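haha ok so turns out i had the wrong file open the whole time. this is the CORRECT one, sorry everyone. sequence first:
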Amino acid sequence: ESNKLSSLPIEIGRLSRLQLLDVGVNFLLPLPTEIPTLSSLQELYLGQNEISSLPTEIGGLSRLQRLGLSYNSLGYLPTEITNLSRLEVLDLSFAGLTSL
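then structure:
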């Protein structure tokens, strides 16, 4: 958290057992393309970045239980987010949503 990152290394996609990823308070613009490949991910915190959209692949994170997207510039959520059947907590506070 708060490392002034603008991107994540591509190697993060190799962490197949990773369960929690907190990259909040950085400068990430798009959601890193490697994140949807993290099949064991249960908690993902992306708050306070500069993310303007989520890829449709986000719906493939079948084990995700908590998703933090606060303080971004999303505009909208992809419909694939409804595929996250285990999702218990979705933080969209100040996420810039203009439609659902």
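Residues 10-91 form a domain with the Leucine-rich repeat, LRR (right-handed beta-alpha superhelix) fold (CATH 3.80.10.10).
again sry for the mixup
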